[in-house]
Design goal:
The chain is mainly alpha-helical. It has a domain at 44-115. The protein is built from three helices and no strands. The chain has helices at 2-28, 34-95, 98-116.
Length: 133
Amino acid sequence: MEGLITKSCKLVGLAGAVLALSLMVGCSSNEPTPEQRAVNAANRADQAASRAQAASQTAQQAAASSQAAASRVQQAASDAKAAADRAEAIAARTMASPRAQKMGLYRRHHKAAAEAAPAPSDSGAAAPPAATP
């Protein structure tokens, strides 16, 4: 019986040693296998592609916004030019018609003279002419 116990203890001890040795070999190798490295690299490449696609979409949106802003600026410049042209035309008409200014003075002068003149009397005599300055 002692031999059986001794043999079983040796067997358990040997099994424990093999188990400990296999754990040490398994744990000492922290490096991933080539398959794991390939999977990790593929995951990183996929993430980089997703980030690049998001950046591309952001750039396209920024380009569209820039084009819209440029269009609005161009329209505003066109409107400003049209307004300046209209103002220039009005100024040219105003500055180029001294006759209209003289006619206004003529009308005001005759209107004032007519108001200052006495009303014609029933005597039949003509009213004296209005004085012109």
